[in-house]
UniProtKB/TrEMBL annotation:
PANTHER family hit by this protein: BIFUNCTIONAL UDP-N-ACETYLGLUCOSAMINE 2-EPIMERASE_N-ACETYLMANNOSAMINE KINASE, ROK (REPRESSOR, ORF, KINASE) FAMILY
Matches recorded under InterPro entries: ATPase_NBD, ROK, WH-like_DNA-bd_sf
Taxonomic classification: Bacteria, Bacillati, Actinomycetota, Actinomycetes, Kitasatosporales
Record-stated family: Belongs to the ROK (NagC/XylR) family.
Record-given protein name: ROK family protein
One Pfam family here: ROK
């Protein structure tokens, strides 16, 4: 290790991580704010910012200018480094996969996807997705610091097993994290270390991404409900932290009953949100047969956004809104969140008729008679991927000097 690297390692790790997280989440746009948030002197904040800049993680505006009409010395602005390191994010869904390179700040640098039937052996699709991600890395020339995986299943901790991949042909308990690590090693993804190979449920990761970078930013207790390519999931951020339960299995909201006489569900019950308020349910209610091209989610959201004036489409939308509202109301009565965000098809349903959904939730929940909780659409593109990236970025946020270790390993 060079003298410069040794010197950096000796500077103390305490303030670097909190400072990087403040810039990463947009809470410290300037050095003055960083000083205040860290509770340190201006000189210390300046040194911390300079160290993060030397690591190639952020840039500091060298020549700050004051805004028109303001007084006092302008503060140096802090930015995510344009050509800084990335992590590899992989999402598996019922219609294929998507991979992305994601920088700090939740910025997607490059992305690609593949569609088709998901094989029963998860190793095959994970290998294909990782190879696609490896090609993105080679083309980008960026340093890779880790990788994260989002899957449409509850993921048991600490072993990373997909316990109930109901909309995939995978066996219950598939060891997706171990298979992901193997795929990364086989593809010789740069930066593969013990910091690589994090995995999680796709809606949990959607909530994590939106809480740090999107519609959930600033919420203390955030409820996220989303329908992806198939099924319905939920996630909860409590007191600013993702709540995954004792072993990663909390908040399986897709199996709330909203129509007792409804369709059979994969879980063995009937009329669950999972089969009553997902893209396939919407297409069926609208009298449309799913086409062979494009994902079910895209087909459903395109129909909802482009043809809502059609009577059959509107009726289907209202039916799903009523079912969704009933499920959300029950969750609100139990969880008492201060904000609700909706993703996937549910985001499109909210945008199509926001007043109807809010009225159903208000009518069916106690808080609706005394004020209400904001119900907002998710705002990030590919938020489950961004959430998978957050898993991989977390060790760097905890200790930014991992960057040096990655350089040394490379």
């Amino acid at each position: 290790m060079t003298h410069t690297r040794t010197t950096r390692l000796e500077r103390g790790r305490g303030a670097l991580g909190p400072a990087l997280e403040l810039v990463h989440t947009g809470r410290a746009p300037t050095r003055a704010v960083l000083t205040s948030e860290l509770g340190v002197t201006r000189a210390t904040a300046g040194a911390v910012a300079a160290e993060l800049e030397a690591l190639g993680l952020i840039t500091v505006d060298a020549h700050p200018t004051a805004a028109a009409g303001t007084q006092g010395r302008p503060s140096h602005r802090l930015f995510i480094a344009d050509q800084g390191p990335v992590v590899l994010a992989v999402q598996i869904h019922a219609d294929g996969y998507r991979v992305a390179l994601v920088g700090l700040g939740g910025r997607i640098v490059a992305t690609t996807s593949g569609c088709g039937t998901i094989p029963a052996d998860p190793a095959r699709i994970l290998s294909e997705a990782v190879r696609a991600g490896s090609a993105l890395l080679r083309d980008s020339g960026r340093q890779c610091l880790g990788a994260g995986l989002a899957v449409p299943s509850a993921v048991a901790e600490p072993d990373g097993e997909a316990l109930n991949p109901l909309h995939l042909a995978w066996p219950a308990g598939a060891p997706v994290r171990a298979l992901f690590l193997q795929a990364l090693a086989d593809a010789k993804v740069p930066g593969v270390t013990e910091h690589v190979g994090f995995s999680g449920n796709d809606v949990n990761l959607t909530a994590l991404a939106e809480h740090r970078h999107g519609a959930g930013r600033g919420a203390r207790d955030l409820l996220c409900v989303a329908s992806g390519h198939r099924g319905v999931g939920g996630a909860l951020v409590l007191d600013g932290r993702l709540h995954s339960g004792s072993s990663g299995l909390a908040l399986e909201v897709g199996h709330l009953t909203v129509n007792p006489e409804g369709a059979p569900c994969h879980c063995g019950s009937r009329g669950c949100l999972d089969v009553e308020a997902d893209p396939l349910a919407f297409l069926g209610a609208a009298g449309r047969t799913p086409g062979p091209e494009g994902s079910l989610l895209k087909q459903a959201t395109d129909l909802l956004r482009e043809e809502y004036a059609d009577d059959s489409v509107r009726a289907a939308g209202e039916l799903l809104i009523d079912r969704l509202g009933l499920g959300i109301a029950g969750l609100v009565n139990i969880l008492n969140p201060d904000r609700i965000i909706l993703g996937g098809l549910h985001r499109a349903l909210l945008e199509a008729d926001p007043e109807r959904l809010r009225a159903v939730v208000a009518d069916r929940s106690l808080w609706g008679r005394s004020g209400g909780v904001p119900i907002l659409p998710c705002t990030l593109d590919h938020n489950a991927l961004v959430g998978a990236a957050e898993l991989a970025w977390q060790p760097v946020l905890d200790d930014p000097l991992i960057v040096l270790e990655g350089e040394h390993a490379g």
